[in-house]
Specification:
The protein is of the alpha/beta class. The protein has helices spanning 18-25, 70-78, 94-100, 126-139, 170-176, 179-196, 228-244, 281-288, 315-325, 340-343, 348-358, 375-388, 394-413; strands spanning 80-83, 106-109, 145-148, 150-152, 155-156, 200-201, 248-249, 251-254, 294-297, 331-333, 363-365. The strands form 3 sheets. Strands 7-6-3-2-1-11 form a 6-stranded parallel beta sheet. Strands 8-9-10 form a 3-stranded parallel beta sheet.
């Protein structure tokens, strides 16, 4: 996810296991990075809110056509993360009912409103954002994932324009090639986020910058390096700094957007001829190091993963490559489903149900490229209908719910 104005089976020629990916590229042993971290502050006090406890699964009530049990609908709602308009929360703002009544799992903040071409969306000042996020969290019965794209540099929703500290791009940090400097820069990002009430950063970008002319990664200085070992080392430092300050992260954009010649915000992107297995190395290494809180999919197509669909909708990419081959069982988050790579090629219902069927746990609609006040309710209804008519199983929904609540328990445990 970027939004620039804001500044079917895996069929590869060979199955890449996590160990093979690491061995093939000689990926850095990220566990050694802890030895070169600056001294960390004393542990934060234990959270006043206890971590989320996972309920014991119970047999769901038999669904009649287009009807599902209320507890299943709440699980579906946890799989929804949307953007909204407003710098303060008024009672008639649709996001109030989405959180309080429907129980959606999360929201994403933006500083620029693309649909309105307005510099005002959710961000005006540090104090305003902190108050906004506190009001949002107060509405939620379950911990609310309040997320933002705060990569640093050109992709930073909280920036100097709104009174936040300056940030450094991943490219600049990679060129400096000092993981301690990356840790320090990321620590400042994380401090800013936590003070604002944001506990989840849709960063770092772990795309390997294999195409220096890439219009969405290289052009916005979002990649640490063309060297997967450097990407891994700096991403590890970035994540460790966030964890030290109680903020979780998302690795993006799986299985790799660095080789693309086009921008998935603007249309269909085919990386079949440019993608390389080295783009998996950072994911494999960071997973082995326990630093993959969540993974965001890329809206890129590769015929090695699927004959027709981009990774977000491809079981071969998510279930086959990410889960089966790399062994990842954490939360998978879609990139924005309003991006043109999806919106121009799929109906909304087809895309929403298809991405969950492919293995995505959290469906993200930034609600910024276009604004739909009822989009969260629509997603829940579409998923509910798919469960009721058998296109999605209750077991599939339970898998996502388990992962989401485990992630939120981890978030609560960060203090």
């Amino acid at each position: 996810m970027n939004h620039m104005p804001d500044l079917t089976v895996y069929r590869g020629t060979g199955a890449w296991t996590r160990r093979q990916v690491l061995t093939a590229g000689g990926a850095v042993a990220v566990t050694l990075l802890a030895g070169c971290r600056p001294a960390e502050p004393s542990p934060a006090p234990a959270p006043t809110t206890p971590p989320v406890s996972l309920p014991t699964p119970t047999p769901a009530a038999e669904a009649r056509p287009l009807e599902i049990a209320p507890d299943l609908r709440r699980k579906l709602a946890q799989m929804v993360l949307v953007g909204f308009r407003g710098t303060v929360i008024e009672a008639d703002n649709p996001i109030v009912a989405d959180i309080r009544d429907r129980g959606i799992g999360g929201v994403v903040l933006f500083s620029y409103d693309v649909a309105l071409q307005s510099p005002v969306r959710n961000v005006e000042s540090p104090a305003q954002v902190a108050a906004l996020d506190a009001a949002l969290a107060e509405l939620a019965a379950d911990p609310l994932m309040i997320a933002v794209d705060q990569e640093g540099g050109k992709v930073a929703r909280f920036n100097e324009t709104h009174g936040f500290p300056p940030t450094v791009s991943a490219q600049a940090l990679g060129e400096q090639n000092d993981p301690d400097a990356t840790y320090a820069a990321a620590a400042q990002l994380a401090e800013t986020l936590k003070a604002a009430g944001v506990r989840h950063n849709f960063a770092p970008v772990v795309d390997v910058n294999t195409n220096p002319d890439n219009p969405v990664i290289a052009a916005y200085e979002r990649s640490f390096s063309a060297d997967p070992e450097k990407v891994t080392a700096h991403a590890a430092a970035f994540i460790e700094a966030h964890h030290a300050h109680g903020v979780l992260c998302t690795l993006k954009h799986f299985p790799g957007h660095g080789s693309s010649r086009d921008d998935s915000h603007r249309g269909f992107v085919d990386v079949s001829a440019t993608w390389s297995p080295v783009e998996l190395e950072p994911y494999a290494a960071l997973m082995d190091a326990g630093l993959a809180d969540s993974v965001m999919t890329a809206h890129v197509f590769n015929r090695a993963w699927d004959a027709t669909d981009p990774a977000t909708l491809a079981p071969g990419a998510i279930q086959g490559l990410l889960r089966d081959e790399l062994g990842y069982d954490g939360v998978v988050i879609s990139d924005d489903m309003q991006m043109d790579a999806i919106a121009d090629n799929y109906g909304f219902a087809e895309a929403v149900v298809g991405t969950v069927a492919a293995g995505v746990d959290v469906v993200v609609v930034g609600n910024n490229l276009a604004y739909e006040p009822d989009v969260a309710a629509r997603i829940i209804d579409l998923l509910a209908a798919a469960v009721a008519d058998g296109r999605l199983s209750e077991a599939r929904i339970d898998e996502s719910y388990r992962r989401i609540m485990a992630l939120k328990a981890k978030w609560a445990g960060q203090g």
